[in-house]
Amino acid sequence: MGRAELPGTRGVYQIVAGNGGSAPAGSWANPFFGFTEVRVYANGSVGVVSHERPVPTPYSSTAVVKAVAGAELVIAGP
Q1: Which own/partner contact pairs does 46-51 have at CB distance under 8 Å and 24+ positions apart?
Q2: Over the stretch 47-56, which tens digit does the pLDDT of each residue have?
C-alpha cells in the first residue's frame, strides 16, 4: 500500500492499495485477496486498515473465508 500527498492540495492524499482481485501469480509466497478500509475521524485524522483473506484452494472454490484486519496505519493527522 502506498500513499502520497497530492501536490498543491494542502493535505489531500492519494492511497494506492493494490488489492484488486486478479488471479494471484504462482510465485506469491502468501497469496490473498483483500480490501482497504479508510477511516476519517472527527478530529481530522485519517487511518487506513488493510483486510485480507487467503486465496481459496482450488481457486474456483466458493468457500467463504472471513477477512482479517491488519493494524491501522494513520496517514494524516491534525
Answers
A1: 46/13, 46/74, 46/75, 46/76, 46/77, 47/72, 47/73, 47/74, 47/75, 48/1, 48/3, 48/15, 48/72, 48/73, 48/74, 48/75, 49/73, 50/1, 50/17, 50/19
A2: 888 888 877 7
